[in-house]
Structure formats: structure tokens, C-alpha cells
Write a structure and sequence with these properties.
Layout: H1 9-34, E1 43-44, E2 49-56, H2 63-72, E3 78-81, H3 83-88, H4 91-98, E4 102-105, H5 118-136, E5 142-143, H6 152-160, E6 164-165, E7 170-171, H7 180-190, E8 196-200, H8 208-221, E9 225-226, H9 229-233, E10 237-238
Parallel strand pairs: 2-3, 2-8, 2-9, 3-4, 5-6, 7-8
Antiparallel strand pairs: 1-10
Length: about 240
């Protein structure tokens, strides 16, 4: 193998230039990745608290049974509601509020906000905000973006609208309808303190109501207390 110092001066300069470019690009990629803005996925706490969250953007058959189950077990959760859905079925968001659950936003159009400009992102967020406020009288401050999609512009736009972007640390996969037992077992086995659990109360999720009572009973047996996302954020460091 030809050693570095046996190469011609021109070849050495070329190799050094390539190396400099490589490490510069790598550093930029690393810094950008490291400093990328992120939503909140969970809370770091030793206290056995957990936040169940429900996204709703479609239908009126599943929400009521979910709300009834939560009431039966005396549990308050956070509901991420889409603006158009809330306007179409106003009586359901009003009951969610009446039962003491937290009203949060799931945006307006079900589109990936990262494909929009910041101005358009803010328009989507505020349009949903006004719809939810009109229906429930509540001004939400938490949003779960459609499809969980985000980038820096989405995070910045949401913050400029007075919102925190909330993701999840535990996906129940109820949106896949894999079977009620599978949903329940997944949540029960993977739950840990500070989790934000993603569930759905849209009509497309047909097994949530069967899995939910099992999840509530078993996690209660394990000593977990169920809180809203806003309450959870007061329990420790969000990350």
C-alpha cells in the first residue's frame, strides 16, 4: 500500500481537502440533528403516573363508549380533537369537557404540517383553536399534529401560537385494530412512569373500547395513577 507521504503533493492536498469536506459535512449533520427541535414524548419521573391520550378526528360511535369507560373508572385523560370533527359533533367535546377531561388540539385539516410554510402551519393551528374554543369554551394549549408529523417549522409555529407539541412514548397500536388482547397486552407490558400513551376514539379504531377496561384495571393493580398531559408535565422533566 502506498503511504500518505509517498503520494504526490497534489494528491495529498486533494485527499486532505476531501477529508476536510467530509468532516465538515458530518459535523453539520450532527449539529443539525442534535439541535433539531422536538416535541414532548414523555416525562422523566419516578412517580407511577401515566397519561392516557385519545385522538379523535372521525365518527360518533366510539367516543361515547370510551368516555363512559373512563367515567366508570373515575379517570381523566387528554383528548386531542380535530377542529372539523368538534364542529360536526359538538355535543361530544362538550361532554368530554364536562367530565373533567383535558381538551387539546389535533389540528384542522388532516395533513402533514411539515409540508406547509410556517404561516400556513399557524393558520391550521389557529383555525382548529378557534373551532375548539367555539364548541367547548376552552382555549387549548397542547397539540398533537396530524399523523404526529413535525419539523422545526411546525414546532416553532406551534410555540408562536402558544402551543406545546405532544407526541407519545407508548403507542397502543389500536389504530391498526390488531385485536383487543394485543392492544391491552402491549400497553400493560410496556408502561412505565411518565409515559404518554397514544390511543384513539375515532370510529376507525374498533377495538379500543374492548381493550381499554383491561388496560385501566391492570395498570391500577400495578399502582399507576392516571393524569392528564398537563398534570403529567408538572411531575418531572419533559423530554
Amino acid at each position: 500500500m502506498v503511504g500518505f507521504y509517498h503520494l504526490t503533493t497534489r494528491a495529498r492536498i486533494l485527499l486532505l481537502a476531501v477529508a476536510v469536506v467530509f468532516f465538515t459535512v458530518s459535523s453539520v449533520i450532527y449539529v443539525n440533528a442534535y439541535h433539531r427541535l422536538k416535541p414532548i414524548y414523555e416525562v422523566v419521573t419516578k412517580e407511577k403516573v401515566i397519561a392516557l391520550t385519545f385522538d379523535i378526528s372521525w365518527g360518533n360511535q366510539t367516543p361515547e363508549p370510551v368516555i363512559n369507560i373512563l367515567k366508570e373508572h373515575d379517570i381523566r385523560s387528554t383528548f386531542f380533537l380535530s377542529g372539523p370533527w368538534a364542529k360536526q359533533y359538538p355535543e361530544i367535546p362538550r361532554r368530554i369537557k364536562k367530565d373533567g377531561h383535558e381538551i387539546a388540539s389535533h389540528g384542522y385539516r388532516h395533513v402533514n404540517l411539515s409540508t406547509l410554510s410556517r404561516a400556513e402551519i399557524k393558520q391550521e393551528i389557529m383555525k382548529a383553536h378557534e373551532a375548539l374554543k367555539e364548541v367547548t369554551g376552552v382555549s387549548p394549549s397542547l397539540i398533537r399534529t396530524p399523523n404526529g408529523d413535525y419539523n422545526d417549522e411546525v414546532i416553532k409555529g406551534a410555540e408562536e401560537c402558544g402551543y406545546k407539541v405532544i407526541q407519545w412514548s407508548l403507542d397502543s397500536l389500536d389504530w391498526m385494530n390488531p385485536g383487543a388482547n394485543t392492544i391491552a397486552e402491549r400497553v400493560i407490558k410496556r408502561a412505565k412512569p411518565g409515559d404518554i400513551v397514544l390511543m384513539h376514539a375515532s370510529d376507525t379504531c374498533k377495538q379500543t373500547t374492548e381493550a381499554l377496561p383491561v388496560i385501566l384495571k391492570e395498570l391500577k393493580k400495578q399502582g399507576y395513577k392516571f393524569v392528564t398531559v398537563s398534570e403529567l408535565l408538572k411531575k418531572g422533566e419533559a423530554k
